[in-house]
Amino acid sequence: xxxxxxxxxxxxxxxFMSNWFCVIxxxxxxxxRNASDLLYCPVGQFGYFADPTNCTRYANCEDGRLTGxxxxxxxxxxxxxxxxxxxxxxxxxxxxQLTGVPDPINPTEPVG
Length: 112
Description:
4-stranded antiparallel β-sheet, elongated, 9% helix, 2 helices, 38% strand, 3-stranded antiparallel β-sheet
């Protein structure tokens, strides 16, 4: 497994919108990942990613591994702005689309 050359972390509370905006950027290869890693985190990615089962939660991923599930405050929804980027926003503005849980046999296909 390789280490990331650069990791950039920024979290800012946008006071007038009452939203958090967080960014973590880097990329690596990942070999041994568990089921939670597969569900929430793209391989080798760092950042915050939408929970595919709950619009109010998002995952903190480091090198393709889940390091924590976070919840948006005040019933806000996680709004994806780019891969690894996003912030908590009003539900009607966030555009959350649940993708479901990946099939454990073929993780690229959702169950159901």
